[in-house]
Amino acid sequence: MAKKLNMRDRYKAMTRLGWEPSYQSKEKIFPYDKYEGIKIHDWDAWEDPFRMTMDAYWKYQGEKEKKLYAIIDAFAQNNGQLNLTDGRYVNALKLFLQGVSPLEYQAHRGFARQGRHFEGEGARVACQMQSLDELRHVQTQVHTMSHYNKHFDGLHNFREWHDRVWYLSVPKSFFDDANTAGPFEFMVAVGFSFEYVLTNLLFVPFMSGAAFNGDMSTVTFGFSAQSDEARHMTLGLEAIKFMLEQDEANVPIVQKWIDKWLWRGYKVLSLVSAMMDYMLPESPMSWKEAWEIYFEENGGALFKDLARYGIKVPSYAELCAKEKEHLSHQVWGILYNHTAAAAIHTWMPDEKKMDWLSAKYPDTFDKYYRPRFEHWKEQEAKGERYYSQTLPCICQTCQIPMGFTDMENDPTQVVYRSSEYKGDKYHFCSDMCKTIFDDEPEKYVQSWLPPQQIFQGNCGGEGLENVLKWYGFELGADNMDYVGSPDEKRWNEWHGIQDTKPTAAE
Predict the structure, then answer these.
(1) pLDDT at 219 over 80
(2) Distances in Å between the alpha carbon of 190 and those of 176, 198, 199, 280, 308?
(3) What is the helix (H) or strand (E) element at residue 9, kind and residue range?
(4) Distance of alpha carbon 242 from its chain centroid, rounded?
(5) pTM of the model
(6) DSSP string for residues in 180-204
(7) What is the DSSP string of 262-307?
(8) How far is it, in rounded angstroms, from Cα 73 to Cα 168?
(9) 90-99 and 101-116 are packed helices; what angle lies between their axes, rounded to 10 degrees?
(10) Is the Cβ–Cβ distance between 265 and 193 less than 8 Å?
(11) Of the candidates 195, 247, 214, 2, which has an alpha carbon nearest to the alpha carbon of residue 87?
(12) How does DSSP classify residue 39?
């Protein structure tokens, strides 16, 4: 009588085809898992973190979908938007829909593409599962937030904005960079650096913030996605350990990729820092606290585990520890000054929020940022709310405006670095962005940088008005200050609050 297979062997029997090519060599069929220099000696050593067959996958996800859409429907039928803490909160959803949801779709395409290029069947199956997860995530996020599109501006054209609007080139460029890398580098970029190390900095504070502000539909899609993220984190760690255990020659390659992609992911999350500290009327935690918990503590434990392979914590971790005191305030200042060209509203924090920021950042907020914000509030009160009529120089690598300051020597001075390549000069916001460029200049000289393209007339023509038309903005509704916006007027009407200020467009 045949021996009954255990769960592990049964899974392998159902997911391993055992296919051996006959008329083409494996080198021709899988050309991209060799050229990066990663050496794999035994693909059978790959351990599948999912261990889920397709029939089990659809059943498991189908149960989650039933629960999720039941809550979304109940939220909509009961006019859940009326129970938010404040209309300003919806701008956090706008930033998420514009900047994060399209990345879920990019991850879906990326895992499908890169999975095709792994010789090992285990890695291919794992990539297929995650590709499906990522597609599900973008669908549920769009469905959840579509309810808010009925009642608020700034949500109606997110796909086109993701491709065109200047500040959204920050997250877009991350995946453009990852999707044009090889399959192993992609796994470090997305599967490990973003999914394993950084995803909790995005999803956990964001969903906690939704709960604190009465947005139970977003909380539900977040929890539904987070159960998938747990598997994704396991896949990312498995990919790293698999590469490191296969050959010692892989260690320096993986270390360089970790250094690069943790930094690139960190720069993308700078937008999240502003969302956490400024866009949430009720904030469960500050960016500083989240960084300490999810990177310094959790990430520190991870790198202690990886130390036995020879992997080290990136050298810039100490810089990030200093920058956590400043990051969100500087990003909010950039968005505030340039919100005429952004598909979100911004505003100056009220006294309650500034007192909260003072408590969370006792060493920096009152010293460096409160005086600046109070000056801007005085300008607003005089009817002189400032909107920049131009766009700043942005970093060639991460595409964030050159607005970050020197944490080592003087937090009042903006960091500026540059490199020359083939007679042209390129600008960077940090030493690490310059290092990444210098290592692969041919890749980054091709970057599509919004300010340069705008000034060349490639984005609708001359002047801010033409650029905003090319973006597809509704002037004063999708952009500019929250105070006086249609969003604020609708919110005030719903809650019987008297308007005292003209519209932003006026």
Answers:
(1) yes
(2) 12, 10, 10, 27, 23
(3) helix 7-15
(4) 26
(5) 0.93
(6) TS-HHHHIIIIIIIIIIIIHHHHHH
(7) HHHHHHHTHHHHHIIIII-SS-SS-HHHHHIIIIIIHHHHHHHHHG
(8) 30
(9) 20
(10) yes
(11) 214
(12) -
Q: Which two tokens stand for residue 4?
A: 């009954």
Residue by residue, DSSP assigns 152-170 as -SS-TTHHHHHHH-GGGHH
Region of poorest pLDDT, from 153-157, 197-201, 331-335: 197-201
Backbone φ and ψ of 121, nearest 5°: -70, -35
Using DSSP's 3-state secondary structure scheme, residue 369 falls into helix
Conformation bin of residue 5: beta by default, left when phi > 0, alpha when psi is -120 to 50? beta
Look at the alpha carbons of 67, 58, 113, 182 in this order and tell me if their dihedral is positive or negative: positive
Query: Minimal CA–CA distance to 410: which of 377, 367, 451, 376?
Result: 367
**CA distance linking residue 180 with residue 186, whole number of Å:** 8
CA pair distance 347, 332, nearest whole angstrom: 9
Residue position matching structure tokens 């300051």: 405
Structure tokens at 472: 């597809």
Q: How far is CA 163 from CA 29, 140, 270, 307, 449, in A?
A: 33, 21, 19, 39, 11
In 3D space, the residue among 264, 254, 121 whose CA is nearest the CA of residue 194 turns out to be 264
CB 450 within 8 A of CB 391: yes
Residues in contact with 321: Cβ distance below 8 Å, sequence separation at least 6, in sequence order: 291, 296
Site of tokens 């004063």:
476
Decide if 424 contacts 433 (C-beta within 8 A).
Answer: no
Hey, is 30 helix, strand or coil? coil
Say how far apart CA 299 and CA 265 lie, in whole Å.
14
Crossing angle between the packed helical segments 431-439 and 250-268, to the nearest 10 degrees = 130
Q: Which residue has the tokens 């120089």?
A: 393
Q: Where are the alpha helices (DSSP H) in 20-53?
A: 26-29
Question: Which candidate, 194, 178, 174, 310, places its Cα nearest to that of 243?
Answer: 310
Q: Looking at this protein, which amino acid is placed at residue 227? A: S
| pLDDT band, very low/low/confident/very high, at 502 (cuts 50, 70, 90) | low
Per-residue pLDDT reduced to its tens digit, 401-457: 999 999 988 999 999 999 999 999 999 999 999 999 999 999 999 999 999 999 999
How buried is residue 475: exposed, middle or buried, by Cβ count under 10 Å (0-12/13-18/19+)?
middle
352 C-beta neighbours (distance < 10 Å), count? 9
Q: What is the CA 269 to chain-centroid distance, rounded?
A: 5
Task: Please give the structure tokens belonging to residue 48.
Answer: 């599948």
Say how far apart CA 27 and CA 164 lie, in whole Å. 39
Give the chain's domains with CATH numbers.
Answer: 28-495 (1.10.620.20)
Quick one: tokens of 474?
């509704």
Backbone torsions φ then ψ of 3, nearest 5 degrees: -70, 135
Q: How many other CB atoms are found less than 10 A from the CB of residue 476?
A: 17
Is 483 within 8 Å of 347 (Cβ atoms)?
yes
Q: Do residues 205 and 274 lie in contact, with contact meaning Cβ atoms separated by under 8 Å?
A: no
> 11 is written with which tokens?
């899974």
